[in-house]
Amino acid sequence: MSSEQPLFMSDETVKSLLKWETLIPAVEGAMRDLSKKDVLQPPRLILPIPSKNGALLAMPAFSKSESALGCKVVTSFQNNQEKGLPSIMGTILFMDSETGKLKVIMEGTEITAWRTAAASVVATKHLHVGEKKILAILGAGTQGRIHALAMHHYFQFQEVRIWNRTESRAKALCNELGSWATHYSNKERCVRDADVIVTATYSPTPIVRLSWLKPGAHINAIGFGVKHHNELEDEIYKSESTVVWVDHMEAAQKELAELINNGVRMRGEVGQAMTLSHAQTQSSNITVFHSLGMAVEDVVAAKVVFEAHKEKLQAATRPSN
Ligand SMILES: NC(=O)C1=CN([C@@H]2O[C@H](COP(=O)(O)OP(=O)(O)OC[C@H]3O[C@@H](n4cnc5c(N)ncnc54)[C@H](OP(=O)(O)O)[C@@H]3O)[C@@H](O)[C@H]2O)C=CC1
Ligand SMILES: O=C(O)C1=NCCCC1
Q: In this predicted model, what pLDDT tens digit does every residue of 210-244 receive, in sequence order?
């Protein structure tokens, strides 16, 4: 019997091993595999904890092509900012996919941030047709920050605008990012003329209006406060020119049930859009990627990190000549 103990990887170690160059293709592959039904991923269990303004989510997945098996447990506690803690904190259990034996216990707070932004990059790549000159980000928390970094890295937008409810945080983030990011004090001005928009807040009421959107704009809607669809006004969903995509249809039936019951049609999964040519999306359509967040993204990201860790160890023990 193997007595090998599971490895523990802290968020600090995980962060040092995460690279957009390896993560984005891995998340793209996971989204494609899910739509090809090469992934086992049941709808996640969500335990709301209303008295704490929080929730706990249990998210297992198995990727056949990556031979990756794992489960993330993640919490979302909206009042954590005042306690100096991240709102979203996760832990990933990464197993041997042949035996189920636990290989790594990985802190999953960094992975959750990075893989969510990577999924938005993949969705933007496959759903947005036109030029990518102006990016507007609403929310300057963990997700707002990591989306700025991922989008800037992948698409090299000419302008990156950031609005936040608490203006000083948008200013501080732009100062940290450098001259390529500009803070906006008015969200309408931030969104108008933008080619791509990211909403990454806990806002319980709409922060984007249809009349602000230019034809062909693409929105990555990330926020999940009380619901997963508070950030966009109803008119956006009702508009005939809007096409809504999700990461996982089965999860959307559950988590976006209210929208679906109100007649909003989900066009399909981003993984399905990858197999369509862009010509099938009219360039004047407004596209929305409703990012629910998928366990398979976490599991393949954990594999990328574990592989990078093993390579680093090997390199350190290789004799130099
Ligand atoms: N789809 C997915 O896979 C994932 C989704 N998420 C979701 O992304 C969102 C952001 O998460 P994260 O960045 O980690 O959280 P943070 O706590 O780091 O940031 C929260 C952001 O929401 C803003 N905010 C809070 N309440 C309101 C409000 N009433 N109106 C407007 N803005 C508000 C905050 O503004 P201020 O600075 O003024 O407080 C801040 O910009 C959350 O909804 C979270 O659930 C997170 C991870 C994965
Ligand atoms: O997919 C995730 O991880 C999360 N999704 C919604 C908010 C909490 C974390």
A: 999 999 999 999 999 888 889 999 999 999 999 99
Q: Which two tokens stand for residue 245?
A: 């995509």
Q: Which ligand is nearest to the CA of 294?
A: 2
Q: How confident is the model at residue 259 (pLDDT cuts 50, 70, 90)?
A: very high
> Which atom of ligand 2 is the closest one to the Cα of 76?
8
Instruction: Give the domain range for residue 240.
Output: 112-295
Does the C-beta of 74 come closer than 6 Å to ligand 2? yes
**Does residue 2 fall inside a structural domain?**
no
Using a cut of 0.95, tell me whether the model's pTM lies above it.
yes
Same domain, 157 and 284: yes
Instruction: Report how far ligand 2's centroid is from the alpha carbon of 38 (Å).
Output: 22
Q: How far apart are CA 153 and CA 289, in angstroms?
A: 20
Task: Give 127's DSSP letter.
Answer: H
CATH number at residue 147: 3.40.50.720
Residue 253 half-sphere exposure, CB side, CA atoms within 13 Å?
A: 4
Domain annotation covers residue 308: yes
